[in-house]
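User: Can you help me understand a structure? I only have the sequence.
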Amino acid sequence: MNQVTLVTLTLLVSTFLLMNGCAAMPDAPAPEPLSAPMSQYDARIVAPPGNRPLGIEELAERLAGTDVVVVGEYHGHHASHLLQSGLQQALYRQHRQQVLSMEQFDLDHQDALNRYLAGDIGEAEMIEDAEAWDNYRGAYRPLVEFARLHDLPVIAANAPAHVVRCVGRQGPEYLDNLPEPVRHSLPAKPFLDIPAYREKFMAAIGASHRADSTMKERMSNTYKAQLLRDNTMAERILQARSQYPEHQILHITGTFHSEQGLGTVALLKQRAPAVSVAVISPVVWPREDDTPPLAENRTHGDYLYLIQPLPEEFRDPERARKAMAERFSTSARTDCD
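Assistant: Let's start by predicting it. Here is the structure, written out as tokens:
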């Protein structure tokens, strides 16, 4: 075999390998090892079960065909809010038809929110009229402003706060006495339940099986109030899908309402099994531990994001008790008659 023939044969073999995807290629770089969040703004996104680190754009690409994307948060955590804003933009680049659904606004304030989005009132007026959360400007303003800039709908998804408080105090029968327009705005089945969610809720509030009948009734009513929130948010999401077909829903909520596929997510799937839902849940990476706490939290979401713990609020038990009493004083002042 002469040199020309050898070169020709080598080229033919190389071309064949390239065409069939079998050519030797350099190894793809291994993903960077998962590192602890560096600040309160920092979140590390991972994809179970392999816990592969993801960037925000790659996460958005994976979620591009999902009907409803639910991002759980620890209310007031900067990393949660920054991740939500970044994901909102990344999802929009993938799918321009988008709806923002928010636990942080009650459905009876939808009109005030709409008037702000339409430019009829200013932000301070909207905050007052819609009874926005105290941390609206620092936490949720970027989400609403992105939606306003791109003319995207924003859904006030939560149940009216005063109705929730009164159900918690008087029980589910309170709904029977509501004016018809208010009752009609709520789900026809406002207390659909998932047994695993009830167990989780009772464990979270420290409920005891040995409680007396009065305490058990109070705990049951508190749980019914929680279910009213979850059922309302699930139904509002489905209403948005009906009102805005072909739109992707981005729902922002406290992580208890969504992690492990419980709460709002479970009730959403119960109502509409064909709707595809992805849950993104926060997991706290303790400062004193160099190991990411993934094994025990793997089922919390389809994707997880690791964040630093929030600072401890109180170390003085008495000051903590007084603060908690003040928080519940608003509920006590609610007129349920």
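Now, to help you interpret it: Residues 177 and 337 are 9 Å apart (CA to CA). The first strand starts at residue 44 and ends at 47. Let me know which part you'd like to focus on.
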